[in-house]
Structure formats: structure tokens, C-alpha cells
Amino acid sequence: MRRLLLAAGLIAAVTSAASAQTLRIALRQDLDVLDPTHSTTYVGRIVFAGMCDKLFDIDKDLHIVPQLATGYEWADPKTLVIHLREGVKFQDGEPLDAAAVKFTLEHYLKTPGSYRRGEISTIDQIDVVDPHTVRIVLKAPSGAFLAQLTDRSGMILPPKAVEKEGKDFGLHPVCSGPFKFVERVAQDHVTLERFKDYWDAKDIHFDKVIYQVLTDSSVRLANLKSGTIDLAEYIAPTDAAAVKADPKLRLVVSDSLGYFGITNNLANGPEANNPYGKNALVRQALDLAIDRNALVKVVFNDMYKAGVEPVPSTSPFYDPDIKVPERNVAKAKELLKQAGVQLPVKLELLAFNNPDILQEAEVIQSMAAEAGFDIHIQAMEFASSLGAAKQGQFQAYLIGWSGRPDIDGNTYNFLHSGQANNWGHYSNPTVDKLLTEGRDTVALDKRRPFYDAMMQQERKDLPVTYLYTTSNIVGMSAKLHGFRAIPDGMIRLQGLEMTK
Fold first, then answer.
1. Which residues of the chain are modeled with pLDDT < 70?
2. What sign has the CA pseudo-torsion 236, 241, 245, 247?
3. Do residues 104 and 52 lie in contact, with contact meaning Cβ atoms separated by under 8 Å?
4. For 56-162, which CATH superfamily applies?
5. Which of 179, 196, 336, 350 could connect to 394 by a Cys-Cys bridge, CB 3.0–4.6 Å?
6. 256-471 in CATH: which number?
7. Which residues contact 463 (CB under 8 A, 6 or more apart)?
8. Whole-angstrom distance, CA of residue 223 vs CA of residue 234
9. Which long-range contacts (CB under 8 A, 24 or more apart) does 95-98 make?
10. In this predicted model, what pLDDT tens digit does every residue of 193-222 receive, in sequence order?
């Protein structure tokens, strides 16, 4: 209890001077960098939703809708023409125009270490038609490209600020969204204040937003119940009933686009040099040792769904013919025997230190032990674990992805050779070809077979051992109105307001 009170006291110290027009949002983890070029975290996207508008957004039905754009058309199968909203300003006063769009997309493509490059690498050239019209020519027709502009690749940056700050842009980020950056204290909070020249100012009802990092689910729940925070972007499934039962609170549960699994290090440095990283039979054995249905029941109160695909069952790219395997310890042992490995197979499992994720790691550890694995759990702060993964300092990493409306956003950067989120350095020419063909095809019915075939190969190689698909579970004050449950899980501040 003393721990909960201390946490509440710390938040109160941050927000004591805040007026009734301050919205306080709890984040489950700390974010990485506040630069869309290099950002990878889900909670970072939530902060960006308050700070950075995009060319396009998605609605609850996953339709692509204009935001900074007012519309678009395909001039031909490879040429996208985007019409921009007039009168939009960046938070430093620069105008947002077609030249800024061209600058930003080229910046994402050319900047070393850019996580956006793989998302929009199909771009061949970008032309400014007039101040409010931009033409994007692709290398090949693409059914996936437009969806990429609904997330960080569609966040337009001010050229002068980017050039001035250089690699330090993430310390002083500037965008065109409803709130502008004030401060960040790592592992504690991010503060934004209202941007008075925002183009859609009529839908903004707060003067300030504070995003508070609360990694402990019990602390998050206690502060929501006490009113110290107004909204928690993630309620642990085991806490959902407590939120639902409190008349001062409201629980919103909705479908998500995300998945969770184990990313496996196959070729990224010395940590890959072990039986698990070098032999697919060993990875298949661990796959069979895990009871996914029991995992989601015990750890996540059956609010998630066991799965072995990178998309949820609601996705048009979901393949119902790929079945979740039943746990089979005997078969797992047989595969380890075929692999000729010494038992027990030692494996380091990297997991970030959120309580539910550590519990999940412990359940996997226990299940795997029965099949002949000796798993050691390496607990690490979330942002630090991302850094370790990027450097190849892991053997297996328990990590998820918040998901995108198109399957390309859940697969290409993770499974294609040489891409930014392919932390295990998986490389399979067949998978590369299928992912490229899926991306470079337009019609949905013609794209699906490429991904179905790709997943058949992925299930053999297991660069990622998919475990389950998630739900968005949000808790908030009953006084907070205007919340929109969108499958991407972002907290859109437009329309949110507090009643007395």
C-alpha cells in the first residue's frame, strides 16, 4: 500500500499545478524517442497522437480517412495524388505545404537508422504539383502503401526545425497536431500544451495533457480509482472487473490489430550462436511446448485470443486454415531428439518488466521445462529491452506489435531481410519474394495467397513464434466523454472533454 501511495504522491506532485483543463493519461511503459523517424514504441504512438497529425487516419471500421490531407486519387496504378488541407501550421509557425510533405517523406527514406524507410520504400519519386498538391510515384502498384500514411510515415515534419535540430530533433519535437511538446522526464512523464493555431481547434477541450508512465498495473489501477489520472490506455485483463464495477469509472474493450509473440535471434551477433537460434527444430519444439489457450486464460483472463498469425481473426488477411497447434510435449521432446541437442536446452528469454509480461514469461518457462528447456528470464526496463534487441543482445525476446490495418505493416519490416524491425536478422528468399509480391499487388483477393504462402514458410522457420492477438482495454473516468475506440488503440484527443 505504501508503494501505491508513493506513486500517487509522485503523480500529484507533477499535476498539482494543473487546472481542471488538464487531461492525465497513464502509459504502461516508457516510450523511446519522440521523433517519428526513429520511434518504434506503441506508447510513443499514443503521445504522437496528441502531438503529430498524419496525412490520413483510420476510423473504427478501418476505413482510411483524410486528416492533413483532404483527399486523394490514383492518377494511374503507380501514381498517388494527395490534396492537402489549406491553412495548416506547424507548432513553430512554419506552413505545412506540399514542400514539407516532400521533405518529410524523403527524410524518412534517407535518414540513417530510419524505421520508416521500410514502410515507404516503394516510393520512386515525390513531386510538388502546387503548394497544396503532392504527387507520389511508386516503383510498382501497391495495395499497402496508402495505409502506411495513416501512422508515423504519414506524420509530416517542419523542414526548418528538422534541419536545425538534426539528430536532437527527438529532444525538441515539432509537429502539426493539437498539442505541442513542453517537456519529457524519462521513465516518468511527457507534458504537452495546447497549440492555439491548430487547424481543428474547435474539437480540442483541454489546455494541457500529461502522459504519466506507470508500468505497474496495480499502481495504474489505484491511481485511476483515486482520480489522480483520468485515463489509462491499458488496463490489465485481471483488473478489468475492478474498473467495470466502479461507478466512477468506465471500461472500454475493443478489438485490436496487434499480436504478441517471441522474436527469435537467428543471425544477429554472437547471441544467435546457440541451438535455439541455429536449428528450426528446436524452435518448433518450444512452439509445441506452449499451451497458448492456457497462457491467455491464466495471465490475461481469457481477454486475448490464442493465435499463430501476425493479424487478428478480424483481418481480411487472416488465414483460417492455419490452426493454433495443441500443446504436445511428447512431440516437442521428439523434435529435440531429432535436433541432436544436449538437454536441457538453455535459453535466455528477454522480457520487459511489466508484471503481466513477467508472469507470461514465467508460465512459458514452466511449460517449456516439461519439454526439455531450461529458460532463464532476463527482465529489463522496456525501452532498454528495445535497445538490447536492436543490438542483437538477446536469444529470444517476448515482445508484441500494436498492429496496422494492412498486413504489410505487421510483417514486412519484421520478416523481410535487412529491415529495421527484423531484430533476429531472419533471411529467407522465399519469404522476401512473397512479402514483396504481396506489397506490390493491389487487389485484396490477389494479395492474400502471397501472405498465406509466406505464413506456411514462417511456421517452419519460426523467426517469430506468434502466441496470441490482443484486445484494447482502456479505463477512464466516467466523466470523460468523446472517447473513440479505434482498433489501432491510439488515444485521439479530438472530441475528448470532461464533464462536471
1. 1-20
2. positive
3. no
4. Dipeptide-binding Protein; Domain 1 (3.90.76.10)
5. 350
6. 3.10.105.10
7. 263, 264, 266, 414, 415, 422, 424, 426
8. 13
9. 96/68, 96/156, 96/158, 96/176, 97/131, 97/132, 98/128, 98/129, 98/130, 98/131, 98/132, 98/133, 98/134
10. 999 999 999 999 999 999 999 999 999 999
The rounded distance, in Å, linking the Cα atoms of 249 and 225 is 7
pTM of the model: 0.91
* Residue among 63, 59, 65, 52 at smallest CA distance from 108: 52
Residue in the block written with cell 527444430? 281
pLDDT for 95 equals 97
Amino acid symbol at 484:
R
CATH number of the structural domain 2-51+177-248+478-498 = 3.40.190.10
Element (DSSP H or E) covering residue 455: helix 444-461
Rounded Cα–Cα distance for residues 319 and 298 (Å): 26
3-state secondary structure of 494: coil
Model confidence pLDDT, tens digit, residues 228-278 = 999 999 999 999 999 999 999 999 999 999 999 999 999 999 999 999 999
Q: Where are the domains of the chain?
A: 2-51+177-248+478-498, 56-162, 256-471
Length of the chain: 500
